Amino acid sequence: EDQVTQSPEALRLQEGESSSLNCSYTVSGLRGLFWYRQDPGKGPEFLFTLYSAGEEKEKERLKATLTKKESFLHITAPKPEDSATYLCAVQAGGGSNYKLTFGKGTLLTVNP
Amino acid sequence: DADVTQTPRNRITKTGKRIMLECSQTKGHDRMYWYRQDPGLGLRLIYYSFDVKDINKGEISDGYSVSRQAQAKFSLSLESAIPNQTALYFCATSNRIDQPQHFGDGTRLSIL
Lengths: 112, 112
Prior knowledge:
The complex is a heterodimer of chains A (112) and B (112). With 112 residues, chain A is mostly beta strands. Chain A is 0% helix and 59% strand. In chain A, the strands form two sheets. In chain A, strands 2, 4, 5, 9, 10 and 11 form a six-stranded mixed beta sheet that branches. Chain B is mainly beta and 112 residues long. Chain B is 0% helix and 58% strand. Chain B has strands spanning 4-7, 10-13, 19-25, 31-38, 42-51, 54-57, 64-70, 73-78, 87-94, 102-103, 107-111. In chain B, strands 2, 4, 5, 6, 9, 10 and 11 form a seven-stranded mixed beta sheet that branches. Classes of the chains: A mainly beta (112), B mainly beta (112). The interface between A and B is medium-sized, with 23 and 25 residues.
């Protein structure tokens, strides 16, 4: 069974204080790993897709990296508007390749 | 206008009532999905459809049914609502298996 574990559950940062969120996964043949951002009262908003170990993607203050067992979302010099819940999801290859398995998310709060 | 629109955004109803949640999309995607989100459990797949003639059960389909009326429309029904179906419900679409899913802003459903 595919599993995704995100840590920490909650993270509080000061503005400008860089940090990383972790997504550990077990999956039968990774087809893709997806990062989403979710604001209160909104649906998840797509951020990145990573397909193979060693791959990196960047967008503004966010950088996602992937190894064979985990992914990191690095946040550099965060701002209060980066406060949100960050979700990680994996998609397996093979017969169940329709399915995204989501982690429970990391609630990030950035204080001014 | 939103690419994935869900109606209603909020609904309060009573146990035993039949409820329909609707989803429409302007992204031109063939694949559509229904998820529920519960605190501490993350997003879980209820049903998915890869085209108008294709409907499949997800991991938690009991108590739910769906209808794919057109490429752009996918409805979720609760035939006889029960309190433990109180949750946030999200519709999502995707273009291909390995492409990210794009979510609507959800329906907050409360069953008393």
